[in-house]
Amino acid sequence: MPKKIMNGTGMDRILRDTAAEAEKHFGKKGFCVIGIKRRGAVLADRMRNFFTDPEIPVGYLDINLYRDDFSKIGSHPVVSQTNIFFNIDGKQILLVDDVLFTGRTIRAALDAITDLGRPSKVRLFVLIDRGHRELPIQADFTGQIIRTKVSEMVEVKVKEIDKADEVILLEKNDMARKRPDRT
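The chain above was modelled as a monomer; its predicted structure follows.
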């Protein structure tokens, strides 16, 4: 049975608080933000609204070609565009994603970033940390830590993609029932 963990108000509060914390950590003009597509990019865009400096650059990173399971995710994986229209060499980066689980998505993002340049520092913000790491990767800024079973999924929904703002915890079997057959 799905369990609602967070609503849109909670998401906004976390993004506002993290924006303030990031500005203290990096300095008000000393950093840029990169959101991992898809939902991490939406969260990065929303966080931009809470910075005191509206000119902080925000970019969007597609990590699909950097995934270590790329050959296993289907015969026609969806690869979108990376949109980072600023130089990241020597920059401090706040990397934004929705859920931190095994750490493999973040590893792929770090590989993609180093192909674009050599930042001076990369710090990670995740809305939800659900544990079960397979790689030694930890968030520097975390919205909420949730204890989960490996058999569970954390689904972050955002209005821009899903028509709702919420975070839901559900069993993987619930996800399979929810999705239509794709054969």
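The first strand starts at residue 3 and ends at 7.
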